[in-house]
Amino acid sequence: MAVDAGASEGDIGARLHAFVRELFPLCRSITGAGTRKTLDAIEQLVPLQRLEVPSGTKVFDWEVPQEWNVRDAWIKNAAGERVVDLQRHNLHLVSYSMPVRARMSLEELRPHLFTLPEHPRWIPYRTSYYRETWGFCLTHEALQSLREGQYEVCIDSTLAPGSMSLGEVVLEGESSDEVLVWTHVCHPSLANDNLSAIAVAAHLARSLAERTRSLTYRFVFAPTTIGSITWLALNESRVHRIRHGLVLASLGDRGPFVYKRSRRGNAEVDRVVEFVLGQAGSTEDFAPYGYDERQFCSPGFDLPVGRLTRTPNGRYAEYHSSADDLEFVTAHSLGASLRLCERICAVLERNRRYRNLLPKCEPRLGPRGLYRNASGRNPSQFEHALLWVLNQSDGTRDLLSIARRANIEFSLVAQAADAAREAGLLEAVT
Ligand code: ZN
Predict the structure, then answer these.
(1) Residue 173 Cα, ligand 1 centroid: separation in angstroms?
(2) Residue-wise over 332-364: b if at least 16 C-beta within 10 A, else e?
(3) Alpha-carbon span 427 to 430, nearest angstrom
């Protein structure tokens, strides 16, 4: 399954990195213009259904907040110089800061200034979605260079009734069973968390749109936490269609893959991702901390949704700081993440349980032309796969478990199953 015929691994990685670079300057938050512009950019790649959920909408125990937009924000010293300036970096302003126009001393200003003393040249990322306050983030070096005296503070923002924006790409398949691919779009200028996964998800959608699909795919681009809570509240009656789900995040750093299982722990998607990952990463059990898997795996939903990242949130120093920048994510990592997602989807598409229709002793393969089907492949490998499929297909074991047990490549097992089905030896179990 190729994204574009002829596109090499390096080409696609470079394209993903260019997409991250394009979106990096936008000032995203859980609502507002930056997030809408991000959805506009995704829409250039794939047809997106847009949803605007009004502020104040009740969603389970939560409420969609007021819409936040910001035009400018700065702190000027007594000489009128901007010592902290939103125009220089989006992380300088605490997201959801209320509008402010004030003069104050450095001592009065200090409680509103946030730094990372352990990384004195990095700007931290801070938010205040549900508490009306304001603040600025700056490097610790910049804070230390501020002199006593009067400062002028301007936050030209609005917090007002509006809406929260979500985008969905739906790719219909033969079956209405769905694969949910979820990505958060609410962080400002942070490359790994989560422009990397936005780029991978958008390009995965584009790649899947170009092929026939047995499953239906639903990609959702939404703010984290309030976005997934809202989406679940609006879609409660149809979430039973979700057969497999993946939350994608932080897929551009140099670390190996980490898959976090669904709360169920043994969902098909858990087994498939673990199998496809092989030696390329590790898997860990569900924990109610992280990204939107917390909502999908809340006990009232308990959906088969796992989470795929490279280095998980909070486990790298650059996390939620200005060091999560365009150099921190690499074209190679982004390209390899997309390929991995494509391989996961390819297995989800073909993994089925079959029943052997001639289960008493081995059926004769020669008269059914099954040896000829082996042309172009090592015949012994194909026959080997065929024997395993016929022996194990009692309606309870899927192709993935057969591939694992036989230690044979999944695609060869799936090819053997197709051939046996065409020869009338197997029927799919639904
Ligand atoms: Zn984050």
Answers:
(1) 32
(2) bbbbbbbbbbbbbbbbbbbbbbbebeeeeeebe
(3) 10
- Taking CA atoms, 321 is separated from 97, 123, 126, 273, 292, in Å, by 18, 5, 9, 30, 20
What average pLDDT does range 220-239 have in this prediction? Answer: 98
Could you tell me the distance, in angstroms and rounded to a whole number, from the CA of residue 320 to the centre of ligand 1?
6
Distance 260 CA to ligand 1 centre (A): 16
CA-closest candidate to residue 221, choices 47, 343, 1? 47
Looking at 77-123, which runs of residues are DSSP E strands? 82-85, 100-105, 113-114
Q: Reduced to 3 states, what is the DSSP secondary structure of residue 76?
A: strand
C-alpha 26/C-alpha 143 separation (Å) is: 25
How far is ligand 1, taken at its centre, from the CA of residue 104, in Å?
A: 32
Tell me 16's DSSP state: H
Question: Exposed, middle or buried by CB within 10 Å (0-12, 13-18, 19+), for 176?
Answer: exposed
For the stretch 341-359, pLDDT in tens is: 999 999 999 999 999 999 9
Beta strands in 175-301 (DSSP E): 178-184, 216-222, 242-248, 257-260, 281-284
pLDDT-based confidence at residue 371 (cuts at 50, 70, 90): confident
Q: What is d(CA 273, CA 115) in angstroms, rounded to the nearest whole number?
A: 38
Please check the confidence at residue 423 and state whether its pLDDT lies above 80.
yes
Residue 125 Cα to ligand 1 midpoint, Å, equals 9
Distance 194 CA to ligand 1 centre (A): 7
How far does the centroid of ligand 1 lie from the alpha carbon of residue 409, in Å?
36
Q: What integer is the mean pLDDT of 49-67?
A: 98
- 249-280 pLDDT, tens digit each: 999 999 999 999 999 999 999 999 999 999 88
Q: In what order do the strands lie in the sheet with 100-105?
A: 82-85, 67-76, 150-160, 100-105
Higher-confidence position of 370 and 351: 351
Using a 10 angstrom Cβ sphere, with 0-12 exposed, 13-18 middle and 19 or more buried, the burial of residue 187 is buried
Cα gap 320→385, rounded to integer Å: 47
Report residue 369's pLDDT band, with 50, 70 and 90 as the boundaries.
confident
**What is the 73 CA–ligand 1 centroid distance (Å)?**
22
The predicted model scores a pTM of: 0.95
- 7 three-state secondary structure: coil
